[in-house]
Recover the amino acids of this structure.
């Protein structure tokens, strides 16, 4: 009896005793470590997109042969004119100006006012915004035929880099910035990428990073199905990534059920899913090796600069800038501004740190000081909460969102830059490529400059027109002997996604006009080899102008393999 009383008393004591507070579930990240990982993420993006840039969409529905993979050149890291990076600067500035809770309509106004070149969902979304279709309708499938494209996926890196260990912040940023141009899988691709970045501050295992990113998107989406497939197929074929590539090709390229909202149904595939598969393949089969990760993501083809940019950014973020091999950073031009933005790399680092501080506090975390006086983020552990499942082919209702007259008055996109001389990098590139030639009216889109390799050629000069009306002009004065035949010899190619008009002038008079396009039957191996006779100028000095003239203002770059004067 006495024992029963004692037990009952103990039970009553337990029942009535005030509950002890639950143990706090947090992760600690020294601020210095945050900075190191964040900087690594930006450098990884630049390295990945730079290495893949010479191959972008040159190989579709096929693997890029290993022999055609360009060798790494430390100059490749300087991708300040690449859309994989400069779009993110607009998003960061919106956040810096208005905070993490920036209204989606304000984000749309800022994006509408951007002045850089865009394509696909980005271009369609910005056009919608400029026409008064406010977000989220600017990215809704009813108004945007590219809503499932890759665009937010390639520029979502920022969302995880300012949200260390905070996947729900990365997901929420997708609901602001991803909705400007994407929907469904096009949105989920960016949230998947952002989630992996957020976790990369604490995890370096590529498999675990991919599995974590998967938790950040709706499980019933085709995008999630694609990631699950690649995870399973990589386990079935752990030592041969090409077999997994073929399985991806058979299901996500050839099966129309997985291209229900693709903007293009042919071999070219800008859909977020298949390109997301290539990001995952780079991470899984790269197994933490930087070069292998980037080259596999690139060799899968299609958008073969964007995919290694995402894979490289995530892996370099997990590694940290302090551990990146010098070959990826020794030629980095950190002070250079990203095209058509006020941001340089040091400014990006500064803004990201400020936003990360705000994100940690917003999530209920805090800053502490360790025994050495260094700051430490104390970050609550979050369970990812994905966005609602809404595929592009069965979307929810449009919001019927339109900008007010007052908001439309704030949308004043800048005119094309007035620029009579070539950017410094083009001027510097022209001289070693074609001594004696100068450049003017050259734009900064599509990363102009010298490429070590492109299209099977070495030492290729890339130019881009200044605007949709003004072509890039390469010019030189040439004394033409009276007694010897003299000719201009050039070898040039177009980007496979676009074309341009080649114009050759002598003393202001047209000597040749020709469209340089993929289906041009005068080209061999993708290159136009052209000789222009200069004998009409015998005994005189002629001012030659070779013009990269735009046509439809889409992928208007010219790739020059040769530009020489020949006098036998």
């Amino acid at each position: 009896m006495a024992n029963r009383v004692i037990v009952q008393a103990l039970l009553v004591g337990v029942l009535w005793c005030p509950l002890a507070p639950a143990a706090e579930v947090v992760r600690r990240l020294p601020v210095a470590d945050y900075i190191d990982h964040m900087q690594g993420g930006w450098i990884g993006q630049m390295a990945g997109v730079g290495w893949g840039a010479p191959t972008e969409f040159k190989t579709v529905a096929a693997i890029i042969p290993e022999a055609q993979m360009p060798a790494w050149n430390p100059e490749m890291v300087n991708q300040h004119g690449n859309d994989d990076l400069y779009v993110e600067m607009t998003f960061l500035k919106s956040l810096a100006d208005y905070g993490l809770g920036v209204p989606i309509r304000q984000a749309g106004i800022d994006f509408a006012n951007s002045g850089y070149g865009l394509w696909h969902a980005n271009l369609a979304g910005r056009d919608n915004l400029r026409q008064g279709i406010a977000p989220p309708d600017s990215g809704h499938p009813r108004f945007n035929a590219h809503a499932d494209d890759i665009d937010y996926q390639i520029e979502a890196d920022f969302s995880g880099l300012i949200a260390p260990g905070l996947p729900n912040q990365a997901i929420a940023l997708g609901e602001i910035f991803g909705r400007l141009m994407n929907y469904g899988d096009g949105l989920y691709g960016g949230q998947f990428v952002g989630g992996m970045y957020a976790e990369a501050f604490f995890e370096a295992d590529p498999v675990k990073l991919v599995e974590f990113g998967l938790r950040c998107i709706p499980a019933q989406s085709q995008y999630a199905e694609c990631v699950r497939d690649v995870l399973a197929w990589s386990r079935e074929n752990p030592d041969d990534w090409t077999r997994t590539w073929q399985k991806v090709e058979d299901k996500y390229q050839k099966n129309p059920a997985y291209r229900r909202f693709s903007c293009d149904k042919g071999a070219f595939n800008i859909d977020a899913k298949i390109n997301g598969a290539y990001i995952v393949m780079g991470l899984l089969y790269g197994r933490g090796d930087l070069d292998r990760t980037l080259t596999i993501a690139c060799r899968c083809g299609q958008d073969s600069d964007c995919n290694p940019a995402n894979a490289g950014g995530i892996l370099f973020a997990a590694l940290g800038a302090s551990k990146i091999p010098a070959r990826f950073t020794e030629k980095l031009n950190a002070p250079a501004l990203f095209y058509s933005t006020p941001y340089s790399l040091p400014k990006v680092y500064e803004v990201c740190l400020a936003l990360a501080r705000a994100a940690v506090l917003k999530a209920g975390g805090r800053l502490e000081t360790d025994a050495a006086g260094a700051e430490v983020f104390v970050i609550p552990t979050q369970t990812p909460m994905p966005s609602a499942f809404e595929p592009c082919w069965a979307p929810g209702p449009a919001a019927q969102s339109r900008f007010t007259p007052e908001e439309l008055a704030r949308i004043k996109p800048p005119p094309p830059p007035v620029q009579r001389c070539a950017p410094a990098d083009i001027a510097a590139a022209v001289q070693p490529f074609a001594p004696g030639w100068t450049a003017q009216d050259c734009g900064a889109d599509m990363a102009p400059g010298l490429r070590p390799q492109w299209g099977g050629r070495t030492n290729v000069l890339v130019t881009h027109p200044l605007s949709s009306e003004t072509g890039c002009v390469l010019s030189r004065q040439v004394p033409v002997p009276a007694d010897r035949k003299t000719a201009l010899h050039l070898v040039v190619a177009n980007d496979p996604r676009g074309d341009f008009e080649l114009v050759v002038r002598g003393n202001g008079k047209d000597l040749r006009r020709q469209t340089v396009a993929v289906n041009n039957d005068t080209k061999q191996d993708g290159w136009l080899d052209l000789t222009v006779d200069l004998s009409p100028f015998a005994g005189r000095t002629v001012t030659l102008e070779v013009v990269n003239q735009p046509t439809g203002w889409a992928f208007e770059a010219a790739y020059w393999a040769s530009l020489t004067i020949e006098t036998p």
